[in-house]
Fold these 3 entries.
Entry 1:
Amino acid sequence: MNVAAATIVLDQRSLRDARHERLFRWLLRGCALIVLVSLLGAAGATLWGGREAFATFGWRFLVSDAGDPGNDLYGALVPVYGTLATSFIALLIAAPVSFGIAVYLSEVAPAWLRTPVAAAIDLLAGIPSIIYGMWGLFIFAPFFAEHIKPWLTSNLGNQPDDGKLSWVAEHVPFVGRLFGSDYPFGASILVAGMVLAVMILPFISAVMREVFQTVPTRLKESAYALGSSTWEVSWDIVLPYTRSAVIGGIFLGLGRALGETMAVTFVLGNAMTLSASLLDPGTSIASTIANQFSEAAGLQKSALMALAFLLFVVTFFVLLVARLMLRRLARREGR
Amino acid sequence: MFAIRKDSSRNARLALLATLAGAAILGSAAHATDISGAGSSFVYPVMSKWSAAYAAKTGDRLNYQSIGSGAGIAQIKAGTIDFGATDAPMPAQELQKSGLGQFPIVVGGIVPVINVAGVPAGKVTLDGVTLADIFLGKITRWNDPRLAALNAGVTLPDGKITVVHRADGSGTSFNFTNYLSKVSPQWAATVKFGTAVQWPTGVGGKGNEGVSQYVRQIKGSIGYVEYAYAVKNKLAWVNLTNAAGNRVKPDANSFAAAAASADWTGVRDFNLVMTNAPGAQAWPITATTWVVMYKSPKNPRNGKAAFDFFRYAMEQGKQVASELDYVPLPASLVRQVEAYWAAEFKH
């Protein structure tokens, strides 16, 4: 009798558990779905908003450098190029520097220094982008124009001030064009990339530092015991062990760089012209939208929506490439 | 003892309630009406000054959001605000379709500013065509013979001209490009005019502040800003040759001359951009902002309060406007606006 009652109670309990389990699973599914639904919703809404522009210009929207509200002609080439170029420069600077910071903090720095430096980097991540923009416009861009740019144009560019082409500009293809400019101000694609690099640095280095600390001490100690240098341990032990997380961190930074708006608007120069030179002003997708949206109407508004949709597409492709890279790496390692 | 304490705390609570209720009654009496408007950022400074002064005087409050002219028009059409403000006038037909009316509220000037070593404010004079050719990228150096011909007695250095324009869509750009379209056939045919255009050359700053900052930092640059920003940032403004062929400098007098000489009687709903105005002393890039309202407001009480506010602004707010380097509407125009109100609006 007692046993029977106990079984009933147990049965009830397992029934209840199963119900709770189901509920919990639905809840988790709902949480994940929110992300998917809002992503699809935002992409769909921008596509819908941009349908007029896509219908009017077709594929030419992608390859046209026009941004001409006077004649109602729009294209995405200049902003897409600006977005990709600034983000690429930012990554080129930020990724190696972040690696250095992370290795220093996890392998080299004395214990008492690690916490304050890590805190400073976290602080850097918390600064609003408008502050980077103001710093870029008021301090960095003038400094760049005064001290760095003249050196670049005269030693690497194809339009040096004194008219004498440097060896590099003459013999290395493209470099002369990349650094040739007679535009006298700092705000440019290169400066925007450099400011972006400072902005994404803390994100990448924070991820790297975290994952570097997960490398088992056994592995590192063994390598040191075999006579490896710190560089060899970092490059041959720590980095391969954490490779996928490191690449993930880099792409987190890249994602932020692609979508950054305010700071870029301040230091990019906002010129709707395509130039081969990194020292000339340009524009990015996000800054074009931020600049023009409030006063845009009709086809112009639709073109801005289409640009927003292209930002989704560009980000998606960049992340896709990252995934493919990771998979190839994994295959090469035989996993 | 305990009971007494409880009692006194209840009394205190009652007193607090009474005070709150009193404050609520007083408060609702003090600002009987909240007028809401949105649009042009060009008028935002003077709107907020006017609304502060008006609230102090009458208790009616005005909440103005500077969200851009286009957005202001969209909001008034959607009926979410009592009035919109725009830097570009709406065509009479479009107004009629939506049952809207519009009238100018205040006048301001847009001035070209330069940064050329050794050239102070007011030294250089340009005419419309040369200004357009600079912004078209056809005149690229400061020692161009055409600039020299206009500026006998001023030494302009051999340096590159860098054009600075607005990166964001704005009424300032609308009026500036409208002027260039009126004076330069090539500009009118290629770039045209609007709150944003495809600039043939140069770099873009965000807002008047952004353009001021770029002009200050870039040697050999030329840009255009609202007069108040040129004064505040001590930028070197230039004189212009106006439609009458006279050399004028930008100030309250030349802006007022432009507003007075523009022919407002010939157009419906004040649909007139008064750049390149004909007056002998008129500053050629003078701009105004229009208020757009429903002719029979959805909320008549707010509609009436808005008209009271605009009457106050035009008649008693002149001092405030002048302090902020705007120009009050000339008396003749105020009379026309008030006649328009009486004829067209129900309030």
Note: The first helix of chain A runs from residue 2 to 49.
Entry 2:
Amino acid sequence: MARMKWGIALRLGALLASFSVFAAVLAGYYTFDSSRERLQGRAERSLLATTQVLARHMQAGFGTVARDTAFMASVAATEMDRGRLADVFKASLATHSSYQQIRLISARDHGLELVRIDRQGDALVRVADDLLQEKAHFPFVFEALGLPAGTVYMSEFGINHEDAAKDSALPVFSVASPVVQAGQVRGVVVVRVAAEPFLRNFNAALPTPYGFFLSNRWGDFLVHPDATQTFGFDRGQRILIQESFAQVAALIDGRAEDAVLSQPGTTDEEALVFSFVRMPFGSQGEGRFMVVGLSQPLATVQGEVLDLGRSILKILLVLSVVGVALAAGVSRVVTQPLQVLVKAAQVFSRGQSHGALPVQRSDEVGELARSFHDMEQQISRQLTELSVSRDAMAQLAHHDTLTGLPNRRMFEQRLPQVLELSRRSGRGCALLFVDLDDFKSINDAHGHAVGDLVLQAVARTIVGAVRQVDAVARLAGDEFTVLCENVDSDDAALQIVDKLEHAFDTPFDIDGRPFPVRASVGLSLFPRDAHDAHTLLASADEAMYRVKQSHRRRLFVSLRR
Amino acid sequence: MAFRALRQAADTLARQMRCASVALLLAMGMGALLAPFTAQAATVLRVLSWPGYADPDVVAVFEKRHRVKVEVTTVASDEVLRAKLDSPDGAGFDLVAANTAEISRLIAHDKLIPLLSGNIPNTARQLLRFRQLQSIAGIHRRGEVYAMPFTYSEMGLVYDRQQFSTPPRSIAVLWDVRWQGKVLAFADSSHGFSLAAMYRGLAPFRVDASRFSALAKDLVALRRNVRSFYSLPEESVELFRKHKVAVMHANYGQQQLKQLRDAGLDVGYVVPKEGALAWLDCWAITRRSTQVALATEWINYMLDPAVSRQFTRRQGLANTLEEPPVLAGDGPMGPIVWLEPVEDETLRARLWQRIVSGDRPNRF
């Protein structure tokens, strides 16, 4: 029973607990899954946003150089003294470490340099007039000459080959602005900017895991974490961004403004996320652009995802514990009234009374309790009826229906018990055997109905003649016995016999008529005459028989008289 | 008895299966261990060539056919080609596509190995003048051939048909001040001086030391006449269109002509009367190569009609199997001069750097 009870509670609890844990795990997994995507998406968007911000910063940086150049071009347009112009150039070079060279180039004489200040190490050197060169065939001259005042031309990024010295062959770009005097383009001011220190202004702020990429509008790498990939075209090689990152081809072709992609890791390289942005470059109408890119290890993106996973796991554990506790509680709430009912059933089955059942509840448990209660009442009722009928049956089995006296069976059960008691107490007892004389003739003469009335009257007479404690029984027909306990002497026994015999002296009143009945009473004493029930009865019977014989003799004598 | 036999059979089978699975697991483990090594040990054919000579799809077919990896490095100038071949770093190259002048220089420096044309059956399909290898200067030495012609291009003049009613006849057009600012020239020291020498009627590859000053001044004059010097074909297309260029010395020959026409420009092409320098690019196998047989297969593959025709179709460059149709109409006027090594490369380069940087004539 206990195991059964545990079974339901445990099973219900386990079911509920597993439901809650399952629901928690499911919810956790979906949260993790969608959050991971969202987080990765967010990381990609933030990388893209960073790239866009970087591109705007770079544009602003180009804008600054452009403004400087345009300003110096405006100065060159008004300043006739080349010495003073050289000082202006020097001042600008001094304040901008990335500026490598500033010069004024004539629109005439095949683009002859008029003023040229070179940064040579830490020194700013004005190049001697006879060393000045003709630059008209460079795009930064012929393109800028065609521009209105105050605007600039940005050259493509390239390796500087204008100087013979090998160590000056560095990545540069030039910014040129026309010098306009009285509506006439007199020349251009060209600022040559060293690409590396210029770009350092922007990408130096980036944390180390970021990789920085820059390509020109054909896709040639200008900046790449691997420096050997840059300016391939200057070495007769094309190392193109769209060949490394196929999706960037859309940026090069102008089909897209930005691209985000990820590259799975290899044994040598970690997995990276890349974002590329098409950055307008040069003046608006030209449609020139550069591609700016950033890379970030996927691990840093996924690190956040793993953190998320861990916190979700924690929440999941807490939820599961709460779920298990709740399940235990719920299973208790459900099984407790059941247990009350079970206990009540157990107690009831032992025939004991039990505590109150939850009959007042309006739910299924209440219904069950009410049903149980009804059933219990019904069973009690039936049990009572059963015991009544059993009592009646017992009465029938042990009593004589005619006289209401105990019958032979009961007498035979009772006799050994009384003898045993007598043996223990040491006090004797007497058995009287009463038999009616000539009862057969009464039956024959007056009929069985009268015979029965006689027998009933005899029973009443015997019961009335003996002591209250003495047990009267009808063994069969007209045979009666009286068992008298605590009869220690013959005298006491004879007194009882005497009293009984006298009770028959008065005729019986049967249907208002006097009806004389004689009885023979045999007596045997325990333990004087017998030591067991059977012998005692036989002895009493024998005594009765002798008495009956003497009665007959007496009758015979009186008849002869 | 029958039951016991069955059990024995089952036991044997189980034992065999265990052995087999152990063997399988071992094999898988070994495979996993060996995989990186085999991947690293995979044959790699290193090719040094020019843009468009070995497009990825063409390479892929060869890779698949021979189960090898082909690494193609492209160069855009002879200087870079030379520098790459001279560099002792890295694994070097198995094959090089270079013009006859470069091949000649490489033979002289003993950087190539002789070819056995019998191993390159596709040579039988080549035009007669490319099969007479002994008549092509620079690719043979002591009766042995070191390179196989693949493609060639004469450096003719591209001109704007809108601006020229008749095709220009002489390279002097590049110096013609009438076209000042509407001329494009190629940024290359060697070709620059050869061009100037032809302009002056001199032998292009054997310039006398005393002539350099004058030629340098000529090149300064050319510089003063050009809009710009270009390096990449795309660059020339942009400049041509944007600055309404009239005439261009087309270093990339018909390849460039194709690009300009693809860009929608109405241009003509001509070989001037002084003749046109022409490069004849040949495939050669370097002495450093450790896989000559595979390299020979590559040369044969490049001369395959399908590959050669596709190459012409895509790049606008002539192949050695068929006569090019491009020159029809305008027709070549002057001779085609196969490139040869020049007398002093360093001197030309040094002078050229100063010319292009803008030194004035009085400094030469």
Note: Chain A has a mean pLDDT of 87.
Entry 3:
Amino acid sequence: MSPTRNVDFATLTMKEALDLAILIEEEAYDRYSELADQLTQHDTPDAAHFFRLMMANEAKHRAAFAEHRDVLFADAACGVTRAMIFDVEAPDYDEARAFMTLRAALETALRAEQKAHAFFVAALARVTDPTVRTLFEELAAEEIAHQELVRRELAKAPPDAAIPTDAFADEPVGE
Amino acid sequence: MSVAAKDFKSDLKPIWCPGCGDFGVLQAIYRSLAAIGRPAHEIAFISGIGCSSRIPGYTTAYGFNSVHGRALPIAQGLKLARPELLVLAAGGDGDGFSIGGGHVPHAVRRNDDLTYIVMDNQTYGLTKGQLSPTAPQGLHTVTSAYGSLELPVNPLLYVLAYGAVFVAQGSPADIAGLTEMIEAAIRYPGFAFVNVQSPCVTYGDESQQIKVHKAVMKKLADLGHDPTSRSQALERAQSYGSELLTGVYFCDPDPPPTLGARVRERQEKMMAAAKPRAQILDTFVQH
């Protein structure tokens, strides 16, 4: 399942690549926001708090790309739309669980960063514009750096409780 | 006027369990409505009762979270009264194929221009995990502690057998594919049915979760399926419950007239043959 629709990486320009990067950050921001709301509603404050931190990170990245884009292309019209991307860096909806631990939330973010890295690596195989190639190489490297940050946080996170978190939720009846 | 997916997102935050398949379905609906491009005030979203039936409230379209199993009769009435509206109906497998099961064949045979999205999770999640009509034989639930003895309803065969003109199946494991499917269903001029395998994260079977879908789902398009062939669709639909095939099962290449079109044609004929107003009034006057 491709995370993009109607994006031709072979002809992608620097302006379109920056627009794409901005939209990817926006999508991730929106998804972390949704997951944080879900977990707040379901009494899972630690994971919700962490997802709000991730929102702040994605907003920061988006602002940096927007600034770069502004310098290079000012008010030129955006060449790509949100309809063209599907969960590039956004964590999957099914990652969230009521009562998930901080560790599980960190692992969710790690998988999202790994997914984003895989996206840029796959795109690089098709990109022809040298400036876009440089940008995507930087973005792929950044995703690796983000993974390292999450891994460091994981190392500091308390271990999960001996009782699994889903023991607090109703479960299907087994034999 | 261009519309974006975010324009269809209401201020109400979904209260589904985190990880529920319905979040992906809602996202696909937002995106497909944005692709259609009609503003929210030209869209009406009707549902029955259940977890998934909360979905109209999470959109900015006109919505009616109605009575259990009655989304389709209300949607049909609305479409007849306000044919200019884009009308969607949604609900769960219990709402559609148990409580509302009697309404589905009539919506199919009337063929009004509606899109019916069923979020099929094989359980009654809102009431804490009872056996639902699409639950597989042998499934353990609170009402089938030793395993279900019943064969499941097959929603795809059900609607195809009654002559449905557009039938598709998707999963929130592929939001992009589901978005395209819902958009195609909305654009189809007639009764369009989309069955979405939307797992219940709390009461659903482990084998029906999104991670499993991602591993096992197969696209009909990759299998050489011809979506214009009803017989192929009937054959493929028989594997419901044993394998997860996604895509358009059947799309009648020659759409029959909708109920709305037939009603308008009848109205025009009757209007043409009607006596002038004065003449009608005159028949009530005693001479």
Note: The longest helix of chain A spans residues 45-73.
